[in-house]
Amino acid sequence: MALNTTSESDPTFMKPCLRFELNLNIEHNSSYESGLITGIVLCILLGIFATLSNLSAIYTILKTSSLHRPSNVLIVGLAISDFFAGIIAYPCLVALQLSDLLQDITKFCALAKALWFTLMILVSVSLLTLTAVALDRFLALHYHMRYCQYVTNKGVAVVLVFIWSYSCLAGVLLVYLNREDTLRAHFIVLFVASLMDIYFLLKIYKTAYRHSRQIQVQHQSVQPSSNLSQVRKSLNVMYFIIVAFVICYLPYVICSGAIGVSSESSGVLVIIYTIAEGLILLNSCINPVIYYWRIEEFRNATRIVFKCIR
């Protein structure tokens, strides 16, 4: 049985559903409904994990003075985005799947619009914050002696406020005001940010490789400074975060393109797209795992903070 499509004759009604109009013509057989139920359970569990793990990361950094560095302020920015994914995006996706399961087209389209708005903001914040992370590590590696003069906690906080403000404004204009010109401009901004990420990563890799070769040639007669060693460790964390971002977001981009050129909907396409959406949100669970796995100082600080709470 398909969803109730009492309003599908109205073209303006379908627009808020965005890609979700594909679901309107999908046969709700037992397999499809079992997939929805499984997705609901997984989203609930992952949403809880994303919320608690990112809240723990935020609290640890804020309560530990030794972690009050620009690079960690940027981690707080990413963790806040992932925290909102846990408390807003995951519940929206659960409610959307429930409305699909119950075949309630009115709630389905409203929730689809809310989820798209939330994802638009969180995707923009995550990508732009990653660009700020890459720029921060570029400056730390290239100008490590003067890095503290160029980059401050307050300055990074201002950048994060700007990123959130821009992303929220873009989300309102794109989703609720349907501004086509804004859509093109926003995608250009995100595309430029992606190119900047690639540029900074290449420059960072080239510089780090050159430093490594210089040390090998000198047979370790000149040891790198502690600050430089710390920068190199943070580079590994950045690489893991960016690779996780690409792995989680690339399937969504590919599926969106497939939907854009598809002439008809299919259950397989909808399920694949839903999985791709889940991968985007899964990124909010992966990031805190990377923090605790790759940053020993972070693990130790968390143990101390929560031991004091008890």
From TrEMBL:
Q: Answer yes or no on keyword DNA-binding.
A: no
Concerning InterPro entries, the annotation shows: GPCR_Rhodpsn, GPCR_Rhodpsn_7TM
Which SUPFAM superfamilies does this chain map to?
A: Family A G protein-coupled receptor-like
User: Recorded GO terms, molecular function?
Assistant: G protein-coupled receptor activity
Record GO cellular component, one term: plasma membrane
Q: How does it sit in the membrane?
A: Multi-pass membrane protein
Q: Which Pfam families match?
A: 7tm_1
Ranges for domain G-protein coupled receptors family 1 profile come to 53-291
Q: Which domain of life is it from?
A: Eukaryota
- List the subcellular locations: Cell membrane
- For this protein, the parts annotated as crossing the membrane are 36-62, 74-96, 116-135, 156-177, 183-202, 237-259, 271-293
Q: What is its main location?
A: membrane
Task: Tell me which UniProt keywords the record has, alphabetically.
Answer: Cell membrane, G-protein coupled receptor, Membrane, Receptor, Transducer, Transmembrane, Transmembrane helix
Q: Which family does it belong to?
A: Belongs to the G-protein coupled receptor 1 family.
> What is the protein name given in its UniProt record?
G-protein coupled receptors family 1 profile domain-containing protein
Where does this protein come from, organism-wise? Exaiptasia diaphana (Tropical sea anemone)
